[in-house]
Structures
1.
Amino acid sequence: MSDNERFGPGAYLTPEEAKEFHKIFMSSFIGFTSIAIVAHALVWFWRPWF
């Protein structure tokens, strides 16, 4: 398999590029989710909505 081989129609990333993208995407998603959880907890302590 060559380095330039792509998998499936419309696949524009090599497997290595896809792994790198996935790593960045997951770290960004976890960071965003963590911030959202903290923000919701702070608002809950300030003004509970239940």
2.
Amino acid sequence: MEIDVRKVAMLSRIRLTDEEAAEFGPQLSSIIGYVEQLAAINTDGVPPTAHPHDVAMPQRADVVTNSNRRDALQTPAPNTESGLYVVPKVID
């Protein structure tokens, strides 16, 4: 199992010490065992769902509620140009 831990660590770009690899081996085995249990469950006829309950997203009318307020929002800005905020250069 330590080889599997090393392979997963390498694919994840994680450096592991020998102690960490030995510690994570049983944890990885437990995770793989759980995934195998899930794979053994017969899910024929069960539709895929994104949520365990029947939930519908509330719908609202697709209408514009706020008009373009750019001018009002840019009024307090110290410096604007062509609808953009002008700020001091910070990178040379």
3.
Amino acid sequence: MSGLSRIALALVIIGGLNWGLIGFFRFDLVAALFGGQDAFLSRVVYGLVGISALLCLRLLFKPSEEIDTVNDRHSRYSNPNLGTEFGEEPDFRKERDAKSKKANRDKKNVK
């Protein structure tokens, strides 16, 4: 996430908290801090929060990099060749027998 997106998200969070205070307690924190709703600084903050909300709209429709990375990792380590009822199953007995024969030969060579 870019620096501009982080700032916009922070301002949207501030605006959301302010709206929560207005809704639950009828207290406008921005107006209280900057001299009322009609004060110049209050209007600047309200405008910045509105612009930030418009910038954050693109975050809503942007695919998450974290989700993409998890999917990439999953597909990298998953086994795409899943056996079916028509597929051949590996015969591990051959491998086991070969290892036991080699072990027997090694024992004979050591003596």
